[in-house]
């Protein structure tokens, strides 16, 4: 059984940040973020088609970018968990709403 795409995407955002923070190697966190994003994008394409996959992938990238200014207001971990939750919820809703 495959891991739900919502968890892959949220895990990529959380794991990427965690790896970067704990190893003090931002590129290593970026590799984890990118790998999870690529896997999620493939799973989205397979389940809901290319247009929805493009939108969800764009949301994933926007969440990563948006977590940085949000972290200045609420803190790093709350920001990461917030954007990861938003991406997971959007993924779940899109996938539940219409498989190809």
Overview of the molecule:
The protein is built from four helices and no strands. The model has no long low-confidence stretch (mean pLDDT 95). The protein has helices spanning 5-23, 26-48, 50-74, 76-97. The protein has 100 residues and is mostly helical. Helix 1 packs antiparallel against helix 2 (26-48) and helix 1 (5-23) packs antiparallel against helix 4 (76-97). The longest helix has 25 residues, at 50-74.
Provide a quick synopsis of the model:
Helix content is 89%, strand content 0%. It is mainly α and 100 residues long.
What topology does this entry show?
Elements: H1 5-23, H2 26-48, H3 50-74, H4 76-97
> Which overall shape is indicated by the principal axes computed on the Cα atoms?
globular
Main sheet?
none
* Spans where pLDDT lies below 50 across 5 or more residues: none
C-alpha Rg, in Å?
13 Å
Total beta strands: 0
**Class inferred from helices and paired strands:** mainly alpha
Which H/E pattern describes the elements? HHHH
Mean pLDDT: 95
- Tell me roughly what share of residues is in helical segments: over 70%
Number of helices: 4
